[in-house]
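Help wanted!
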Amino acid sequence: MEDTQNSMPGSIAASKLSSRTAQPGQNATKRLQTELMQLMTSPAPGISAFPSADGNLLVWGATIEGPADTPYDGLTLKLSFEFPANYPYIAPTVLFKTPIYHPNVDFSGRICLDILKDKWTPAYNIQTVLLSLQSLLGEPNNASPLNGEAAELWDKDPACFKAKVMERHKDIGDE
Amino acid sequence: MTSTYSTMSRWKERRRQVHQSVFRTEVSQPTPQATPTLGFSRSGQPFGGHDYTAAGSGFTSPDLAEQRGTTLYSPQDAVDDQTRYDRAWHVVTTHIALPQAATFQPSEHVPADYLLQLKGLGQRRGRGQGATSEGEFVEALRLVVNCHALLPQAYATEDIFFWHVQQVRRHLSRHVLPLLSACADTRLSENRSRSKVVGADATTYNKHMKIVLSHVQILERAIGLYSSRFELLAQGLKEVLATEKEVETPEIHDMTTRFQRDLRSLVGSSAFDHLTNSLGAVLEQLVGTTLGVLSELKHHDGSSQKRPRIAAPAADDPNPSAAKQRLLELLGPLHKVGLTSERFQVLFAEVMDAIMARFVKGAYSGLWVVAPNDDHGLIRTRTAPALPDRRAAIYGSVSSCMTSLFDWIDGHYVPLVAEVMTQINDDGTEHTVPLSDIRTYRSLAAGRLAALRITELYDIVLQWPKSRGALDDLRSSITTPQRRLQLTDTFSAALEKRLLHPGRSTLEILQTYISMIRTFYALDHGKVLLGRVQPKLQLYLCGREDAIRTVVDGLLATPDEIRAVMQGRDRQKDDSAVRSSDRIKGKGKQVGPFMTPAMPPSQTRNVGYNAPDHEVEISMSNRVHGTQEKTASAYNKLVELAVLLSESLKSRDSTRPEEEGDLDWDDMCWVPDPIDAGANYRRSRDEDVIGTIISSLGSPETFIREFQLILTERLLSDQPTFEQEVRVLNLLKKRFGDAALQNCDVMIRDIRESRRLDTAIRRVQALHQGMQQLQEAQSVTPATPRQQFTPSGRTRPADSVVTRGKVAQKGADEPYHARILSRLYWPNLDREHFLLPQPIVALQHRYETGYEQLKSARKLTWLNQLGLATVELELQDRTVTVQCKTYEATVIYAFQDPAATSPVRRTVDQLVDQLQMDDDLITSALSFWVGQRVLARRGDVYAVLETDSSEGAAPFSSPTAVATSQASVPEPAAPAVDEKEAAQRALYWSYIRGMLTNASATMPLGQIAMMMKMLIQDGFPWSNEELQEFLAERVAEGEMEIVGGKYKLVKK
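Answered by r_m:
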């Protein structure tokens, strides 16, 4: 009995095998579909993502609920994902659509996060990216800020930071 | 010579005059016309003279006339000659003139009078004869016939024979035909309405027969009259010839035959119109009786329902031979009066054709199995082979019905044709039917039989295998693509109309499908026909959700289930047989549509009894409350599949290996592919009912998934062995490949392995000793339920081993068993959480420890709700032992209270708190115990029924309460389906939520549906309506709202 169990190729290994040989373009779509299914069947609290309304699987929208015990508590932050055709080998482009006051996010919504840049690997997925961003909200990387003022205020004056956050924040309407 | 006519005759007369004014057919004047208008005069002839070369018709020639009249040619002579000729002509024509039935007025005559009228004709003839003396006549005839020699100057001469023919024609149309039509009309007008059902009514036949006979009589007399006049003429001519040698006339004999022939064709063509209906009816009756089609005529008493089956007449039956005699007698006179012309033959052919159709329909419809000792003479020579072997099936053995039909053709049909044709032959020689005609008759008959069978095919399928005989008929006749197409078209239509509608259960459809596969295979080994009729059925089956389950259940049916079902069906059959035999007895004759099957009884009825070698495996289930339901539900199983499966396994050794390639050079039964086979046609070697059905149930994945679920249920039941399951699994492996069914393999191995492990663990842990202690501890409490109890469970460790406890069933010495399942390979078994009784939990812990000793690094996860428990309850007045589900046992255990002095009471809410069990499960468990009369319900409170007296029960539970609570116990399979459905709905809901959160905050229904279809990998099966309903539920729950026709999430 044990033998069969151990020799049976696991589903993960099989999918790896097939992803190496498949065409990149189709592969991205397929991968994104699978990720969507995963997100839907086992959703993580506080984050969600979905392909855009025009049915283009390479463009997604995402939502992060501001984590409790952070200045973003109770805020809803919208993001956009753009996936390259050879995703997951190349990282998606992620932007905050909601104006956000954060040390690692500039005023046009660009994010400084290592796993979206040089640390990206195909093992990451939308869910992990969103979870990383969620934790980035509570623990900004003040060593390499895009918003120096915010990085400074984060440590020196949390109350002022919170006020800035609330001032900057604006619920974006529905397109 | 014009007479008084009735209006009708007057009209006819007017028409005739018009006709004559154009065509100059009026030649009845005693004197030829003074100014004939035929053509121009020739040189040497007087102007305005008759051109006798044109009308001469061989009597004279211009040369002869010139010879005769060379010298003595003068106008004076001519006038004399002409006068003499005219006088002679007058004498002759008066002598042979036909009498005029001047007083005849058809409308005033009843048909009985027409014979008197004919007598009148005869009398007048006598008077006409007396007008001139014999010698005078001969003299005059001499002048008329030989006018060119004797009266060379007569310029207007005529052919006396031609004149006579014209006279006959006129007489016929003016006097005889009105007479005929009158008698036909009056006869028919009496019963025109009834004349439609010719043959069914003896009086109609008699009327028609009278009409025919009167026709014949009238015509006989008329023809006699015409002939007698001709005889006079011929006689006179003979005398003329005797005296005058040099007169050149044609041979009298030739003229006579020619006259006879003309007369016959004249009568045949003119008089036939009035006779067609009646003669057709008479012929149909006589021919029908002769050939056995209308045998019921003699005992015609209005009870037409009890008519026996049509059959070829027996040799000693007086009725057909009498009819035949009558027919042949009738033909003689008919032929004599010229009524057997070509049109008669056409009519006869039509009648014969209709008779053949009726014979085939009457003799063979519904007759699919013919007994060898058939008592009414249908089958004499060959009987259907008991079991058509492959070769016979391919080459098309001539079936019994076909044989008897051919016998009928050869023995009755063809001889009758020959005799009739002999009778109406002109030369009187015997007519032999050519071989090619016989062949045509046969093929016509076979075609009709085939058409009959094609229309019956659906019923034939339903009656399989008793209807095998009918297929033999069909097989030999469906040889052309057209006929095969007709067959499939007809059958498809019947299938759609009679089977593929919601009124039929899936089981019925599948049973019919099985019969269909077998029938069509017997019909056509190439399965081309089946391939053409089954797509619709398959499509329909795909829409039936329970199709796969029915098939798999059927495949897995146990031998005793098979026997139960077969006995049940036999009983039904017996009932219907009794009923039908009653009906047959009422008929007085034992002729039903289905007679004793020609094949050995084992072939037809073996299905339930041919599995004696499996009986060893049968172990009767001890589940008290389950037995009844089991047998009841077994009626609804497709046990045919299980039977087929065991048969195919048995016969596998004897058949050749299947993978042999297409070209088997030693195959002496090889036949080419069917003509209408498609391009992708692949020859199949055997019936392969199971394979065909499985492959028609949609994709293999769906089938395997369903099979796995059912297998799960069975493996987790208390079934002791799984032979049937293994057998089915092996069969499926052959079809789908080992890899696809690996999970099932592992599942079965798990169960086997668990037994071994179970023994080992129990030995190590000495579980039964612990159990005994437990029992001792518990048996102290007599007034409350005492339970001997072990649930099942499973573990979900990092190492993916899952175990499941199994309750002991056989006694106190082996009380606790587990089945250990490998989690990855079993379909998702959901874990219901509830708290087991403490002693059981203790046992589980010990079991776990034992397992971990045997298999290090593995842990058990208990699946508590899947187990079975034997519960022994000691109540005040009785002891109840029940085998039940673990959650049921847990619930009843909660009623145990050693300290209690009065019956223990619990509410559902209390139990939910106490057991942490789902309240649905608790409710169903409580219902179970109420059904067992262990608990009683009053309002929301359940209490233990310590005494089973009716008084004690009355306040708590009325019978209706028990009934309803039992009804509410969910079926074991139902929750699984609901759970799946619920999971799917939850998934869709999260899609919709994600969509409205991230893609667009508001969306119309159509776009949501479109996105769902595009984004869900396994497809989105809902229609827009279903989706709308689903969304409406969400709106009602306040999770969504509709703004401007678009859906929107409600912000919280």
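OP: Thanks! One thing I noticed: The first strand of chain A starts at residue 47 and ends at 51.
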